[in-house]
Amino acid sequence: MLVHTVLNDRKISYTLKRCKRKSVGLIINHEGLKISVPLQATVPHIESILQQKADWITKKLEQWQSKKSLAISWKHDAIYPLLGEPWHIALKPSGEIEMARYSVNETTNAETAEQSVPQLSSQHIEKFVMAWYGQQAITCFKQRIDIYAQKLNVPVPSFRLSRAQTRWGSCNSRGIIHLNWRLIQLPLHLIDYVVAHELAHLIEMNHSMRFWKLVESIYPQHLIARKELKGYG
Ligand SMILES: [Zn+2]
């Protein structure tokens, strides 16, 4: 259910989901603000929590909307998108840092959690976050390539992560696929489009009608995905 409210003089729309849970949970991702509430939660109760968290919500929504540029800052309180969801650096009970899914509920305060992460050097953060992105990308891309190679009925090709500035993926004449590591920041359906596109090049090394028919046969929503991908620059 889509609900509208006003927070800090700003009109905000959010998706409200009622489910079996004890507290109110707030999540901000590429689709905007999502709120999960207990079945019996009243509208005034939900509204009062939103007003309490108004600063956090408006700040995160702004950060997240500007994230479409996918620019990364290596700061301890930065948000790092993974599969279209916000993640951040958090502290394990052991004192080590880890990456954790960004969400907040009425009992925990995300701002306090952020501040408890020590001020690390930007080089340290970059190294840590990039290693995490690399691992996530390799696991995810391998799995998606397996799925789409099977759909296309081609042998699973080998792939490499690329750091190309201008392209999401490519396929060379030796049948090796390169996928930009930044794809791992995008929602899964966009990764799937790029994977399907590059795999189709294993059969058609061009962008002919035959090529697009092939893409469509394994990824029917390709026109929508292409348009959406352009929004990420
Ligand atoms: Zn292509």
In short:
The protein is 39% helix and 24% strand. The protein has 233 residues and is an alpha+beta fold. The chain has 2 domains: 1-67, no CATH class; 128-229, Zincin-like (2-Layer Sandwich), CATH 3.30.2010.
Task: Explain what this protein looks like in three dimensions.
Helix 4 crosses helix 5 (188-200) and helix 5 packs across helix 6 (209-218). Strand 1 and strand 2 form a beta hairpin. The strands form three sheets. Strands 1-2-4-3-8 form a five-stranded mixed beta sheet, covered by helices on one side. A three-stranded antiparallel beta sheet has the order 5-6-7, with helices on one face. The chain has a three-stranded mixed beta sheet with strand order 9-11-10, with helices on one face. The protein is α+β, with helices and mostly antiparallel strands and 233 residues long. It folds into two domains: 1-67, no CATH class; 128-229, Zincin-like (2-Layer Sandwich). It has seven helices and eleven strands. The chain has helices at residues 43-52, 54-66, 110-115, 122-152, 188-200, 209-218, 222-230, and strands at 2-7, 10-19, 25-29, 32-38, 80-82, 85-91, 97-101, 104-105, 159-162, 169-171, 177-180. The two termini are 31 Å apart. Helix content is 39%, strand content 24%. The structure holds zinc ion. Zinc ion is lined by residues 197, 201, 207.
